[in-house]
Write a structure and sequence with these properties.
Layout lengths: L2 H51 L21 H15 L6 H9 L4 E4 L3 E7 L10 E3 L3 E6 L5 E4 L4 E6 L4 E6 H4 L6 H4 L1 H34 L12 H7 L4 E11 L2 E10 L8 E5 L6 E5 L11 E6 L2 H6 L3 E2 L8
Parallel strand pairs: 11-13
Antiparallel strand pairs: 1-2, 1-8, 2-3, 2-4, 4-5, 5-6, 6-7, 8-9, 10-11, 10-12
C-alpha cells in the first residue's frame, strides 16, 4: 500500500475515535454542570428551610425555654420554604405537573425536633396506594433496656425516664435524675451520651430505610426508572445534626447523562448558614469567577459551573475571582 493509502486508513480509524472521545468529554462536562446545579439547588433549599424552622411569631414559642437547644420547629413553614426554593431552582414554580415530578425525586424529608422527629413522605401506610404526601406523627427518641426501663431522649441531656423497679417517672437533666432512679444507663455519663446519639441515629435511619423502600412504589407509578435506597450518611454529619434542631432532605434518581443524581443535604434551624458559593468558568475568556447561589445576575451569563465552595476564601484559593452580581460585569 502507498503511504497515502496508509494515511487515509489512519484518518478513517482515528478520526471517529477522537470524535467519540470529544463527545464523551463534552457529555462529562454537561453531567458535572448539572450535578453542580442540583447540589447548589438542594443546599440552598435546605438552608432556606432551616431558617424557616425557627421563624416563630409568638414569643412563648421562641427558643431558650428550659434548654439552650429547645425551640419549636415549624415543620410546615420549613417544608413550604424548601419546596418553593426547589421549584424555583428547577424552573417549575408555575408548573404543577413539574412540581409533582420533582416530588417524585424526593423520597423523604425529616425534621429533627428537640424531643423527636417528623417524617414527610408519600402515604403507603396500611397498604394504601396513594400519591398523597403527608407528615407522619411525631416520633420520640426512645430507648428501653432488658429490665423494662425506658428513656425518652432529647438533643441534649434532658430526659424523661421510667424506672420499672420503682414504677415511677422522672424528668430532668441526666446528671440530676440519675440519683433518683436505678436505671443503669443514666449512671454512666459517657455511656449515656454514646447511647443517646446512637439511638437517635438508628431510629431515624431505620424509619428512613423503610420509607425510601416504600417510595419505590410511587416511583414506578411516576415512571421513574430508579431504585431508591438510603445513602450512607457520614458519622461526622450525624454528629453535627444532633447538635441542633434541623432538617434532612434527599434528592435522588434525577437522570444525568448515563447515571442518576443521588444526594442529600442537612440544615440546622439555629445555625447562621451562608448560601453556597459557586465557582464557574467564562467559556469565552476562560476566566474563573465565584458567586453566591442566590446571585440572579449570573444566570444569563452562560458561565459553566464547575465547583461548589463553603466560603469565598476557599474559592479564591482555587483561582476564582469575585463576580459583581449587581451589574453582571466581572
Amino acid at each position: 500500500m502507498k503511504i497515502t493509502d496508509w494515511a487515509i486508513l489512519f484518518v478513517l480509524i482515528v478520526v471517529p475515535i477522537l470524535w467519540l472521545s470529544g463527545q464523551r468529554v463534552e457529555d462529562l462536562r454537561e453531567v458535572n454542570r448539572l450535578e453542580t446545579r442540583y447540589t447548589a439547588a438542594i443546599r440552598t433549599a435546605v438552608q432556606d428551610a432551616a431558617v424557616a424552622l425557627n421563624r416563630n411569631e409568638l414569643q412563648q414559642f421562641e427558643s431558650g425555654y428550659g434548654s439552650a437547644k429547645w425551640m419549636r420547629a415549624d415543620k410546615e413553614q420549613a417544608l413550604a420554604a424548601l419546596l418553593q426554593s426547589l421549584y424555583l431552582n428547577f424552573g417549575v414554580a408555575d408548573d404543577p405537573v413539574g412540581q409533582q415530578v420533582i416530588l417524585g425525586y424526593i423520597p423523604a424529608v425529616v425534621v429533627m425536633d428537640y424531643d423527636g422527629y417528623y417524617l414527610y413522605a408519600a402515604d403507603y401506610e396500611g397498604g394504601k396506594d396513594s400519591n398523597a404526601y403527608h407528615w407522619q406523627d411525631k416520633k420520640p427518641y426512645t430507648y428501653s433496656d432488658r429490665e423494662g426501663n425506658s428513656i425518652a431522649f432529647t438533643l441534649d441531656r434532658n430526659v424523661t425516664a421510667y424506672d420499672a423497679a420503682a414504677d415511677r417517672w422522672v424528668n430532668g437533666l441526666q446528671s440530676e435524675v440519675k440519683s433518683e432512679v436505678a436505671i443503669p444507663l443514666l449512671q454512666d455519663d459517657e455511656q449515656f451520651e454514646a447511647v443517646r446519639r446512637a439511638t437517635i441515629v438508628r431510629q431515624i435511619e431505620e424509619d428512613l430505610a423503610q420509607t425510601i423502600r416504600n417510595h419505590n412504589l410511587l416511583a414506578v407509578k411516576l415512571g421513574v426508572n430508579y431504585t431508591f435506597t438510603l445513602p450512607v450518611i457520614a458519622q461526622e454529619e450525624w454528629n453535627n445534626t444532633l447538635n441542633d434542631v434541623g432538617i434532612l432532605v434527599f434528592l435522588q434518581g434525577i437522570p444525568v447523562g448515563d447515571h442518576h443524581y443521588n444526594n442529600y443535604a442537612i440544615g440546622g434551624g439555629r445555625l447562621d448558614r451562608t448560601p453556597a458559593i459557586l465557582g464557574a468558568v467564562d467559556l469565552l475568556t476562560g476566566m474563573k469567577y465565584y458567586y453566591r447561589a442566590s446571585c440572579s445576575g449570573a444566570q444569563g451569563l452562560g458561565y459553566r459551573e464547575e465547583e461548589i465552595f463553603s466560603d469565598e476564601r476557599e474559592a479564591v484559593k482555587n483561582g476564582y475571582f469575585p463576580l459583581k452580581c449587581q451589574t453582571n460585569d466581572p
